[in-house]
């Protein structure tokens, strides 16, 4: 369209040129047009998507900023298909939502940024750090986490008034954040903390993280634009550093080291051996502490809304809990027997995901799904969209039928995939089961009348975090005994 407009302008201009410009201008204009064509010709890629077109393509960046990433991607996918090229911060970025391509991409590509683990794009550093996370999130730590989750959920349910407003509504998202922070602290750090204060700092940290992630470089040249976000990141960092300092002091005074050294102790000892820097230790502890209060808490919150909206699914889960576990607390050997709950968890993560975009950078030239991909290309894998395009019999409905048949893992990747996939995916599954079983046993969930998932507004399209200020975050927790009694009457 733009070229056509330019063409028309060119016709009008040439008709007036002889009167106002010397004749030499025409060949110069033609030369400029010729150079323009050559420049664009070099940019022509076989991958569908807006071209560079003298910098007009990168303006898409700004579209991301005002539309939100999720919405903008859906629009672009409609225009260009499931494998497309866009420009983010002037850099070529591929957006893929096909399972065939995604599977290839993980072999060749790796994530971005250079600190801690989550967005560490220094492969050598990341390789040193990942084993600390993998060890803490599996084996004995994973088994211990089940009892920790049960205990923490019970304790928080006993203090529900802390998250209940004057009308008796519970801020379910905050409730889940407090439980997930408490369980993470118990297993990974073990220093008493002010839950409300740290939860707030984590929320602000993520708001900042989401807001800054896809901003173009120019944004960071104007300090007042990013100052508030920088402060949020600094606040959480400082709060965690104080806790780690307390941990260091505790470790320096204990006579006999505990048999079970937790995650923070392992890192601190690695630092004293000279294997890690203090800064890296702090960043790793911070990321371990925020991982569950971010993803897991929002996932559980969505699950509570889905349970409230689907009483038949709730009934089936309750029957299963009674049959498999009875009246005792859930234990590790119950996990694989909770089939209905597992299908519910999977279907919830498919239908209402908390993370639907995964990012990589190509380490070398490659061909993905027939398209050439240059080394250094950023790639965003749209797994949320992929989960609604392929394999599932009722992709746009929430139904456990979608998981009735065994789902090949290539079609369902809520935790990402490959060496860079979620290192907490196994512990996340047991945590979700332990918290849900303990909560559902005692309470029935209800959302305010007329409100449901459809009313959830997202605070940012990059992840699916609900907007903190909307009333849907509030729910009713009805004690089961009262509900059963009412039904008997
Ligand atoms: C329902 C809960 C969760 C979901 C949906 C989730 C999802 C994800 C996804 C999609 C990624 C990116 C994977 C990729 O790039 O391929 C990721 C990475 C990660 N997750 Fe999770 N996650 C969850 C829970 C957790 C928990 C409980 C922990 C730890 C306590 C955790 C720790 C991490 C870490 C450390 C990474 C970065 C891994 C790396 O870059 O090597 N996650 N997660």
Supply the CATH architecture of the domain at 97-352 and 398-443: Orthogonal Bundle
What is the count of DSSP helices, taking H or I runs of 4+ residues? 17
Q: Percent of residues in beta strands?
A: 5-15%
The main sheet comes to: 5 strands, mixed
Helix-strand category:
alpha+beta
Task: Report on this structure.
By secondary structure, this protein is of the alpha+beta class. It has a domain of 302 residues: Cytochrome p450 (Orthogonal Bundle). 55% of the residues lie in helices and 9% in strands. The strands form three sheets. A five-stranded mixed beta sheet has the order 1-2-8-5-3. It has a three-stranded antiparallel beta sheet with strand order 4-10-9. Helix 10 crosses helix 12 and helix 12 crosses helix 14. The protein is globular. The site of protoporphyrin IX containing FE (HEM) has 27 residues, from helix 6, helix 12 and helix 16. Protoporphyrin IX containing FE (HEM) binds next to helix 6, helix 12 and helix 16. One of its GO terms (cellular component) is membrane. Keywords: Coiled coil, Heme, Iron, Membrane, Metal-binding, Monooxygenase, Oxidoreductase, Transmembrane, Transmembrane helix. It is found in: Membrane.
């Amino acid at each position: 369209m733009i070229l056509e407009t330019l063409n028309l302008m060119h016709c009008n201009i040439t008709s007036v040129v002889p009167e106002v410009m010397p004749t030499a201008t025409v060949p110069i204009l033609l030369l400029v047009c010729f150079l323009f064509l050559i420049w664009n010709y070099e940019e022509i890629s076989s991958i569908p998507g807006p071209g560079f077109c003298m910098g007009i393509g990168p303006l898409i960046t700004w579209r991301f900023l005002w539309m939100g990433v999720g919405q903008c991607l859906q629009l672009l996918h409609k225009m260009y298909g499931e494998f497309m090229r866009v420009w983010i911060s002037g850099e070529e970025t591929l957006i893929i939502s096909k399972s065939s391509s995604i599977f290839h991409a993980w072999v060749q590509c790796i994530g971005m940024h250079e600190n801690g683990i989550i967005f560490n794009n220094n492969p050598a550093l990341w390789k040193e750090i990942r084993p600390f996370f993998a060890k803490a999130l599996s084996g004995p730590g994973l088994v211990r986490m089940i009892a920790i989750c049960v205990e923490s959920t019970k304790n928080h349910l006993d203090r529900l008034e802390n998250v209940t407003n004057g009308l008796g509504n519970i801020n379910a998202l905050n409730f889940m954040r407090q439980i997930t922070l408490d369980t993470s602290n118990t297993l990974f750090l073990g220093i008493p903390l002010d839950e409300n204060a740290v939860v707030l700092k984590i929320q602000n940290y993520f708001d900042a993280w989401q807001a800054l992630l896809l901003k173009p470089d120019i944004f960071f040249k104007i300090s007042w634009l990013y100052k508030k976000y920088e402060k949020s990141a600094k606040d959480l960092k400082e709060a965690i550093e104080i806790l780690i300092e307390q941990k260091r002091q505790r470790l320096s005074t204990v006579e006999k080291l505990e048999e079970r050294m937790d995650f923070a102790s392992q890192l601190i000892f690695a630092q004293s051996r000279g294997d890690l820097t203090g800064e890296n230790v702090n960043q790793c502890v911070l990321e371990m502490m925020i991982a569950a209060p971010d993803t897991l808490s929002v996932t559980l919150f969505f699950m509570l809304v889905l349970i409230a909206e689907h009483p038949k699914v709730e009934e089936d889960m309750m029957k299963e809990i009674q049959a498999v576990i009875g009246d005792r607390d859930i234990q590790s050997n119950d996990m694989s027997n909770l089939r209905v709950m597992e299908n519910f968890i999977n279907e919830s993560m498919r239908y209402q995901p908390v993370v639907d975009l995964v990012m990589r950078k190509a380490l070398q030239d490659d061909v993905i799904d027939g398209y050439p991909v240059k080394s250094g290309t950023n790639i965003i894998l749209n797994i949320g969209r992929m989960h609604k395009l392929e394999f599932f019999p009722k992709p746009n409905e929430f139904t456990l039928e979608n998981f009735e048949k065994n789902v090949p893992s290539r079609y369902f990747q809520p935790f990402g995939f490959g060496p860079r996939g979620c290192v907490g995916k196994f512990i996340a599954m047991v945590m979700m089961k332990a918290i849900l079983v303990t909560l559902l046993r005692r309470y029935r969930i209800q959302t305010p009348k007329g409100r449901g998932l459809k009313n959830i507004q997202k605070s940012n399209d990059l992840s699916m975090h609900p907007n903190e200020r909307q009333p849907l975050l509030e729910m009713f927790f009805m004690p089961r005994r009262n509900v059963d009694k009412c039904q008997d009457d």
